[in-house]
Amino acid sequence: MGLNDTPSGERVHIGFFGKRNAGKSSIVNAVTGQDLAVVSDIKGTTTDPVYKAMELLPLGPVMIIDTPGTDDRGSLGQMRVKKTRQILNRADIAILVTDATQPLAPEEKQLISLFREKMLPYLIVRNKWDLPDHLPLEEDHEIQASALTGAGIHELKERIAHLVRSGDKERKLVGDLIHPSDTVILVVPIDKSAPKGRLILPQQQTIRDILDSGAAAMVVRETEYSEFLDRMKEKPALVITDSQVFSRVSSETPEDIPLTSFSILMARYKGFLDTAVHGVSAINNLKPGDRVLIAEGCTHHRQCEDIGTVKIPAWLNKKLGFPVRIDTSSGREFPDDLSGYSLVIHCGGCMLNEREMLYRMKCAQDQNIPFTNYGVCIAWLKGILERSIRIIPNLHI
Predict the structure, then answer these.
(1) Number of domains within the chain
(2) Which of 25, 130, 247, 366 is deepest in the core (most CB within 10 A)?
């Protein structure tokens, strides 16, 4: 996978915010070096967030988000402002573009307060610095620039890069759980829901992490797994399976061989595994007619054996002995109001960045709604959760 194919969940998300006609879209275009955003003298030209995955030197793979004006008026304007605020929940860095000839407006000061409240690294770009009546800079977070002349754009990119490097951390999907020269078996079903001709993202990322750790990855289908395991001269250091075949793989794997799933590892990677493990026990408290939200971070064509809309609901109802009401959401549309739900079951979040996943988790926590994920839920339903998390340090049911 080349840099241009870096998944959105692994890109640094940079949100550009500002009042209408502060020159926000012009700054976006100047930073990216292309006409990403529509530029006009008419206020409110940017009506919906614009997303663009790209390479941005010296940053590398990023997701640029150009947002509507935060001072938009009317009912439609308020919807745009709401979308802008939602971007804060998935942005890794916030860039507030202001008019250097004007003092900070209340809406801009409110945004700065939100940046600080959410502990979001940010910069204030004082655009239109080429005009003679510009006001002086007031704080360290500010930088002067001109989208018209290009002045300050290079410095802006360097400052953004510094924020990325200072906030970056080394994360591993599985590399910290294995050792060089280990062999790891990955069990990958190839059924109707599997994409044609390729592996899904968590599988690709896991293989790469194993290789980066100096270990070996053996990839097999569940139908051949037992045969390959019997033929191995040395036991594998770890078996990682797709959650859909968790039960079968567990029954065919000796107890002294560590076993977990791609989804559980992804939840740990995104920072919400503890919450998922503690939230899954809420299944015991479900009653007939309770509502359960099954949420996915990506949008895809639903197959007849879809994991989120078919398999998990069927396993859940079978375990409970009665039906519950299932609602689903996908992509960026995650409800802010979860008060009507008794449980949220989320996918591993491979297509979402860490901030977005933690925001969704916190939405549930703030409303006292239990929150878990596919892998943890399936392992619990199959009675193998304790075994599945045994390899994860400092994590207990």
Answers:
(1) 3
(2) 25
